[in-house]
Amino acid sequence: MSENGPDLSTTHPETLPGTPRLYVDLALAANAVLTLPVPQSHYLAQVMRRQPGDMVRLFDDRSGEWAARVLVAGRKAVEVRIETRISPRETVPDLWLCFAPLKRGRIDWVVEKGCELGVARLVPVLTRRTVVDKLNLDRLRAHMVEAAEQCERTALPELVEPVTLTALLKAWPAERALIFADETGGAPLAEALRAAPAPAAILIGPEGGFDAAERDAIRALPQCRPVSLGPRILRADTAAAVAVGVWQAVMGDGR
């Protein structure tokens, strides 16, 4: 066992350090011969200099992670044969992270950490004080995929289209608790989580916070559980990571 988890190289030599690990939006199965998409092909052939016979690790967010052998390493396309499955797709706790979009850089960080911490769904929420109203979801997804590749994830969060706070609350599922990080106060987070039913979602506001009308609307939702993240003032991106981390430790697979 290494500091970061089990030593997969003892049973799967292809997982040794230096073996490229990539996400591909393709159905992976034993003995399948696949031509990889252009970005992954370019990375393997031109950046990592993979040659026929070399091993790569691929995961598809469906069936898990697989060892694949390079058959053709062309400048424009890499062809591989899928050999053995290294691990199945991981089980992800049913947690959503609902967050107001932040400026570029900080929102990238929220998406990356949400992926690393095991969020099932990422929901951008437009509020009255949101400073960003247009998102490049393809760019955010690329950051999410990179985080998954680096952190041994075999599952990706679902990244959905932005939704207004009003629409979010109107369509809120009856069975899902809404853990509302309210800067005006609430129950201590860990204490509230132990009393909150699952499944759940965490709601983090914009840098300027929710206005009074928005806060009242959120608190009026029967499934709402207002919480405090402690005595310190946190930036929105920090608050998101703290709340998800505590939820995973108390209610999720970090227990």
Q: Can you describe what's shown?
A:
The structure is a single chain. The chain has seven helices and 13 strands. The protein has 255 residues and is an alpha/beta fold. The chain has two domains: 8-87, Beta Barrel (Ribosomal Protein L25, Chain P); 95-250, SPOUT methyltransferase, trefoil knot domain (Alpha/beta knot, 3-Layer(aba) Sandwich), CATH 3.40.1280.10. Strand 3 and strand 4 form a beta hairpin. The radius of gyration is 21 Å and the shape is elongated. The protein starts with 20 loop residues before the first strand and ends in a 5-residue tail after the last helix. Mean pLDDT is 90; it is low at 1-10.
User: Can you tell me the overall shape?
Assistant: elongated
Structural class: alpha/beta
Total strands: 13
CATH superfamily of the largest domain: SPOUT methyltransferase, trefoil knot domain
Biggest sheet details: 8 strands, parallel
What is the CATH class name of the largest domain? Answer: Alpha Beta
End-to-end distance: 19 Å
